[in-house]
Amino acid sequence: MGKIVSIINPKAGGFNDLVETCINFNVDKIFPEHEIVYTTQVHSGITEKLINTNLEQIIKDYASNGIRNFNICGGDGHIGEVIDAIMKLGINSNEFSISVLPIGSGNDFAFGGLGIKDIQQGLDSLNNYYRKGNKNIKEVDLFRTEVKLDDESTFSRYGINSADVSFGAFLLNFMENTAIGRKAKKMFGGKSYTYLSPLVSLLYKSPDLKIDINGWTKVESIENFGNYPINSQNSLMDNSEKRVLINRIIHSRKNFLTCWQNSEYTGGGLRLCPGAKIDDDVFDFFIHERTFRPKFPFSLMLKAKKGEVLEDPYVSRVWDVKKVEISANNGNLGRYLNVDGELYNFTSPIKKVKYEGTGEKLRFICDK
């Protein structure tokens, strides 16, 4: 069985002293050798804490000592950052086994991808795999987001769940970096994003995007792509499922929301891509064109919560996607990038972004 290391983000929305005790006590029962490491300073004094704010160094130090079992305790952003650090080691990803205890405010990957809705379910899954010998493992597809900025500098990060440089990233920045956003999060938790989205949408300027993408889309959605170049010679119609294969499409319009998806959920329970799977070697891409209805963002989020967002005539979903490249026809893509719920705020505007499946997989313990 070996040793397991729990990497806890104490700033996660669901973290408190009781949660800490629960994790420490229950994981200790499963693993004779269990160590906890925190990524930020904490003051509860329940257990002896190893503090190291350099996540990449944490992972590197443990991996160099042969540790391959990591228990990630936090939200989607924390999970994604740990995975990014693991993949940058250059070690075969098949050597690692990752478990998740969701204590974030959204937990879209844990719930939508792994079927784990809370800490207890995460602990049960951990016990079933290591103690009972169940094969409750999913080999999760990984992707990489690569950004090129106006000053010609670059940035890249591995991801597991979702990514966007559109309204989702803009909203995340507002919630994290403004007094109104922080106060709303404290009062309403994850629901604050839905409540404030109409207000924040008035501040967001939809860029005129150029999207280079290959994949399948619904036949009726083709109208949303307008008269832009589609390689019709290699396009295939699947009348049984009413879908069309677009071998290469340049989608060029003003878009409110564009989101690269691995699982069904993003943004704290928004079900943008019903039926999406995290272990099928392909990804989904969600597009919502800019509209000027004042109630639009609130309506969109309510539909997404119910999994009915694809019924919106302004929505297009492209699936079986392996790569998407986005740039602006005029200007730039803004300064904000959201990968797995983690916000990156660049000093220079984003010139171009590319999402691409890497073909690599990482073993995650799931509910069943």
Written account of the structure:
It is a single chain. By secondary structure, the chain is of the alpha+beta class. Helix content is 26%, strand content 35%. It has a 17-stranded mixed sheet that branches. Helix 2 (55-64) packs across helix 3. The model is unreliable at 42-50 and 226-237 (pLDDT under 50).
Order of helices and strands: EHEEHEHEHHEEEHHHEEEEEEHEEEEE
Distance between the termini: 20 Å
Radius of gyration based on Cα positions: 21 Å
> Count the helices. How many?
9
Strand tally is 19
What is the structural class? alpha+beta
Mean pLDDT: 84
Helix content: 25-40%
Measured by DSSP, the beta-strand proportion falls in: 25-35%
Please give the oligomerization state of what you see: single chain
How is the main sheet built? 17 strands, mixed
Unreliable spans = 42-50, 226-237
Assign an overall shape.
globular
